[in-house]
Write a structure and sequence with these properties.
300 residues, 4-stranded mixed beta sheet, alpha/beta, globular, 9 helices
Length: 300
């Protein structure tokens, strides 16, 4: 697949060199020990400039064949159509903007822009010899991402799957009622438990606190319900779990909940697996996706 660059813009801006499916030099902004920033507050021009500088740092004027970048939100044809996590990017033709910025540095290569969870799914597929297989991944953080490989024409906003009809479930960042993210997302949990962090809720549940235990059961059932919806649409298979909140998953409980929801025999055979170091995998996936699209002739 040659030598390409993967970029990821989530809580940080990451850039990494990828040769075939191996991740090499990685840089992040801000650098470790230099504090944190809220990407929601970074203007578009500054974000493009930061990405450009991180790419230059890992590239070191060496030849590359393509650049792939993962962003949160609905990303199609190089445009971020909506992004509740990075609202300033809504409507941005990020593929064109980034390609133009890189040309100023003498890097005239195809730029592919995809959803960050889709980049993670592509990274899992690439590093596990599964580029010819269906890969689905739940990214569990402040929000909930649903990664899907191979890429398709759909929106794949699985984090906004409706998992309850309770009109009180209004905690999703998009404002929708009954969404998976409104139960499983870290932001939603902080709104629900105003005096507790998500990890404290699950610790309390393990110690028998009734309210926390009830919520932990709801949390697992919600994730199982969204998974069951995907299974009923695309069939069974392995689902990967990534992100900081994947530490809260009780695989035994999650599997039991899923078994209650998926009963038809052709749809049996789904397994869950927790995946560590998801940003590394997403960088690989973004880069590999740019190479695949270049070969296939698809646009950004």
């Amino acid at each position: 697949m040659g030598r390409s660059i993967g970029v990821l813009a989530t809580h940080f801006i990451w850039a990494g060199i990828v040769e075939d499916t191996k991740l090499g030099t990685v840089r992040m902004y801000p650098e470790p020990g230099h504090g944190q920033i809220d990407l929601k507050s970074v203007p578009v021009d500054e974000m493009i400039a930061r990405i450009r500088s991180q790419i230059a740092l890992v590239r070191q004027d060496q030849p590359v064949t393509s650049v792939g970048a993962g962003f949160p939100g609905i990303v199609r044809c190089g445009v971020i159509e909506d992004s509740p996590n990075l609202g300033q990017l809504k409507g941005l033709q990020v593929g064109e903007r980034l390609a133009a910025a890189l040309r100023e540095d003498g890097l005239n290569v195809p730029v592919t822009v995809i959803n960050d969870a889709d980049a993670l799914a592509a990274g899992i597929a690439a590093t596990r010899g599964g580029l010819d297989k269906l890969v689905r991944v739940w990214y569990l953080g402040d929000g909930v991402g649903f990664g899907h490989y191979p890429p398709g024409d759909g929106f794949w906003e699985g984090g906004h799957s409706v998992v309850t009809l309770d009109p009180k479930e209004r905690f999703c960042a998009c404002g929708g009622i009954g969404h998976l993210e409104g139960i499983v997302g870290g932001r939603a949990m902080r709104l629900r438990f105003l005096d507790m962090e998500p990890e404290e809720v699950f610790i309390a549940a393990r110690h028998g606190d009734p309210k926390a235990k009830e919520f932990a059961n709801l949390w697992h059932r919600a994730l199982a319900a969204a998974t069951a919806t995907s299974i009923h649409s695309e069939g069974p298979g392995r689902f990967y779990l990534a992100g900081p909140n994947s530490d809260f998953v009780d695989l035994g409980l999650l599997n039991l909940d899923l078994q209650e929801m998926v009963k038809m025999s052709p749809l049996q055979g789904t397994f869950f697996e927790v995946v560590p170091t998801s940003h590394d995998l997403a960088l690989i996936g973004a880069a590999v996706s740019s190479t695949i699209r270049q070969v296939g002739g698809a646009g950004s």
